[in-house]
Amino acid sequence: MPQQITVLVAAAFVIAIGYGIVAPVLPQFASTFGVGVAAASAVVSAFALARLLFAPAGGRIVNRIGERPTYVVGVLVVALSSAATAFAQTYWQLLLFRGLGGIGSVMFTISAMGLIVRLAPPQMRGRVSGYYASAFLVGGVLGPVVGGLLAGLGMQAPFLIYAGALVVAVAVVHFRLKDEVLGAGRGGSAQPVMTVAEAWSVGAYRSAVVSNFANGWTSYGIRVALVPLLAVAVLGAGPEVAGLALAVFAAGNALALTVTGRLTDRFGRRPLVLVGLVVNGLATMALGLAQDVPWFVVLSLVAGMGSGTMNPGQQAAVADVIGPGRAGGPVLARYQMSADTGQILGPVVAGALADAAGFGWAFGVSGALLLVAALAWLPVRDTLERPGAVPVPTDDPGGR
């Protein structure tokens, strides 16, 4: 694996640990300002909403100044936001500072994806996507554990520690990628820009946007918002069971990522994406019908494995569409926006379904979205470049 990719993976791990330290504390910190549950939850949503709204501008910034400068600026913005959050004096200051952090977050997310597109060899894109996702996943799992050990330091400490972790990540990327010519100069991007319309003409990109939306809805949205409520309301279990379900979902995800990246590079993007979508979709539908804790935990594990199976393939497909010779900031931004939109809408819509018709319908509809996304991949030609293969033009209706 190229050394530059290793640097990005290491930085992702550091960032994820810091985020994991902050995440459990944030709603409690918001509650100290005397607000209710809804207002405390809005602080979490402000981060995701800012990411969504700023994503188009973030893509243009990547094309204008290049991936590496955008990455560094974005991580520094999140670091400053986190440090400022620790010293917030009012609820509205807290809301503002977290929103600014979302702006920086989408900047470094899109630029990191751009760097991976540029630096990863075509025959390793699946593995690289798996390594990068694994770094975030493992860091996110370890972060709350570290945060629990630091609980005695007070509410402000996690935010300052997160800021420090981000500065470390910036330093690693800045100095280890210092001599790389990664993109834009002062006069604009050194590479031709791929427009969103051009990417949208490729079937694989359209399907990746659809499946990323469905995965954001389920794996990042209702998984966190509704699984704990299902454990209590239907199974009569405590929060420890909900935590176990989330943990085994992450474990299944990590387990799948260790092998599916290589399989994606060997057998193609499309087969692994299809398998992952179907497995995750069926497991999610069954999860809403679970009547006992063992099945609840097993189905969470299977759903996590499905999510981990599809992710390297769809990300590698997007990288294949852009290619190392094009600047694809807006293209990557729209892809990222699809997951953020699903993450925001999923808990709201599925929560309303749960209130109106029960958890079975909420999880059933969510799982069905993943199966619909699988149907979107069926007519798509695989994007993996094989030796001797004849490339398909990007304006081919089949979408290579």
Keywords:
mainly alpha; 15 helices; disordered C terminus; about 80% helix; Growth Hormone, Chain: A; about 0% strand; 2 domains; about 400 residues
Q: What general outline do the C-alpha atoms trace?
A: globular
SS elements, strand count: 0
Percent strand equals under 5%
CATH class of the largest domain reads: Mainly Alpha
Give the ordered list of helices and strands.
HHHHHHHHHHHHHHH
**Assembly context of the chains:** single chain
Looking at CATH, the homologous superfamily of the largest domain is: MFS general substrate transporter like domains
Question: Quick recap of the structure?
Answer:
The chain has helices spanning 3-22, 26-31, 37-65, 67-86, 91-119, 125-149, 157-176, 196-200, 203-225, 227-233, 239-267, 269-287, 293-322, 329-357, 359-377. With 400 residues, it is an all-alpha fold.
Write the layout of secondary structure elements.
Elements: H1 3-22, H2 26-31, H3 37-65, H4 67-86, H5 91-119, H6 125-149, H7 157-176, H8 196-200, H9 203-225, H10 227-233, H11 239-267, H12 269-287, H13 293-322, H14 329-357, H15 359-377
Written overview of the protein:
The protein folds into 2 domains: 1-179, Up-down Bundle (Growth Hormone, Chain: A); 191-384, Up-down Bundle (Growth Hormone, Chain: A). The chain has 400 residues and is an all-alpha fold. The chain is 78% helix and 0% strand. α1 (3-22) packs parallel to α6 (125-149), α6 packs antiparallel against α11 and α9 (203-225) crosses α14 (329-357). Residues 179-189 and 387-400 have low confidence and may be disordered. The two termini are 27 Å apart. It is built from 15 helices and no strands.
